Amino acid sequence: MTSQFGAMVRGLRLRAGLTQEDLADRSGLGVRTVRGLETGERADPRVATVRRLADALGLAGDERVALFATAGFGKPSGPVKAAVAQDPLLAEVPGQDAPTEESGHGGESGTSRRDRHGAWVEASGRGLGDGAEKTDAEARPGGSAVERRLADAADELAHAVRVRWQREEEQRQIHDPFPLPVRWRPVAAALTDSWANVRRARDGAAEPLDLTGCLDQIVEVYRRIPSGRLVVLGQAGSGKTILTLRFVLDLLRTRAPGAAVPVVVGLGSWNPTTTSLRDWLIARLRQDHPDLDAPGPGGSTLAAALVETDRVLPVLDGFDEIADGLHRAALEALNATRLPLLLTSRPDEYAAAVAGTDVLTAACGVELVDLTPADLADYLPRTTRAGDGGGTAWEPVLTELRDRPDRRASANLAAALTTPLMVGLARAVYSDTPDHDPATLLDTDRFPTREALEEHLLGNFVATVYRHQPENARFDPDRVQRWLGHLARHLRGLGTYDLAWWQLGASLRLPVRMLVVALTAGLILGLVDLAVEGLLVPAAGMYPLLFGALFGAVVGSAFGVAYGLANRSGRPEPSRVRLRVRAGPARTGRVGSRFRIGFVVGGLLGFGYGLAREAAHQLSFGYGKGLLSATVDGVVFGLVFGVAAGAVAAVIARCEAPLDVKSAGGPTELLRANRTTVLIQLAVAGPAFALAVPLVTWLVVLLLRWLFPGGMLAGLEFSWSPVFGVVLGLVGGLVAGLGYLLSMTAWGQWLVFARLCLPLAGRLPWAVSAFLDDAYRRGVLRRAGAVYQFRHARLQDHLACR
């Protein structure tokens, strides 16, 4: 009954033009509760919950009775069924006796299907991209403003995805001279769901679908699947990523306006035990497409709204790359959703997950097959120029494979070159470098096994592309191997394949990173204070140096601790906002959170500033105002710095807006955008803080003089001068701004670790960004949204072991 209830709630919500957040607000329920009820994850809703939903949806009469009946509180009568069936959305509710519509591809494509336990559950019809279905906004004349906005957002996302993957396809030379053949066959029956579930057949019986095809037919094959769920299995390097890329581009080419957008996401970073699939998809969309962080309906983000309304078709690449021990949980989490999807994996990892839990519900599967010697003979000669005799350097090798296939050399090489990955490496090492003879690959003394050949190709790829390309003048090939090896080991230590520039420092242990941040911040901020106070407030003796050292130690330690606390709950990621003059829509939670953080950090800095002044005075001159006075100063400065920092942080939060998608189309663009954002934040916050500090200090001093006239508090005197206020403001603004940059921002960590610490240790070059971009252009790295990845996981593993 709960699956019927969830489907009906969703239909009523869509009819009302509401998002899940809107319905939650109207009903007084949590968003997770609404989501769980719609997906069936929350079983047996209470009568009070159903009543709240009915009131929020404005239901009356037969519709209200039907909602309670599907929740198990009563039984719908014939008139109720008839009334519900009159609504095209509610007619889709499982359990109604609506006839199944015939699919244009020869199978049932009704609006519901039977799950593995025999219950009827809703199946999303959105996302096949063939233009046969209309979106909510198109289906209703004049659609609601929410629907039109989401349709526009989906169209903008589709454009961004298309541009990004077209460039990536060109970068990977997939069409140079033509794509390698990628073919597949159906997987074993034990790895797929029943055809009745795949075809959404009501009677429990259905014929198998024809899943045969090749690379340019992947969308056609996918559209034959009524459930919209396909698993693609293949060995390492067999062409799974090429297939997903072609799937996305071909599907977008025929996508109807407003329809679901195929989005490729690597599964390696997903932890299904802590994050649901939908929440993780939302986070990835916000990371890779910062414009989707804009406010959406009901106070959520556009990313959340697109995912929740099934306007995103997940293309989940690399099920096998999920951390060890989480594959079963991942498969269970995938089965908890009804999203159409395309999933890729190596066969062994997927088979093990299926054996431990269940198949992917309503999904069929195909397995990529090996390349043949005939494929090699057709492809490799066309990747290099012909010699004087008209033949190419590959001719002797291909002749040997064709005429003597039983020889060990031929058998080993044919086995090694069965995947697009190895063929691509062989092309890079031998076709693109005329001084390399591919006949070497037939030497069984050097390469007695298939594995030896593969290691040879993996081991020579990096050296080849750096030594034999004209752009190699900037980076020494020998050092490149060491730098890439460090990056590969860094990723292995993190358990991921995503090379994010803001996480490069994570290769060091957290205590080491805290110490590095503390020393860097302490040195820089101590020098800043020495320069400012030395110029504006000349002092005798060693006081300026002592105060600069003590203050640097205090604030450096504070920001080191702040860095550690920030990294315990998750590493700071790039800010995906820009500042605008006009305030954006109020987000009370964000503004309040920023004020609290600013108040705490500012308070600690102010308190440390007051104590450091007294300690420096005692050490320099042998006397001071005493511990009580120093404590009062610390409290006053802490209050001043805290209020000023909190107020400035809150104002900036109100002026933040999501980045434009063009500002962060890839890792380099995101780095530049984040740098600009942080510098603008400092340019605004620094002067604002510098003005706020002396003003608040003056007001506090006046208040203390009024509360304790004549030094009533243990003889303390509360003094104030304009020069002191200016110095305090400048020191506070510079220290708070630079400390925040170095310890709390992604770009600051990039500066501290990637641009200073790791190059000093010889683990990375000084020009890290240029090095990563150069490795991408040479084909060693690839881009996957806002992060880099190695060309292939096998190349990363090979470099990590060197």
UniProtKB/TrEMBL annotation:
Matches recorded under InterPro entries: Cro/C1-type_HTH, Lambda_DNA-bd_dom_sf, NACHT_NTPase, P-loop_NTPase
Transmembrane feature ranges: 514-537, 543-566, 632-653, 682-708, 720-742
GO MF, one example: DNA binding
Superkingdom in the source lineage: Bacteria
Region feature Disordered, mapped onto this chain: 94-145
Keywords for the protein's UniProt record, in alphabetical order: Membrane, Transmembrane, Transmembrane helix
Protein name: NACHT domain-containing protein
Native source species: Actinokineospora iranica
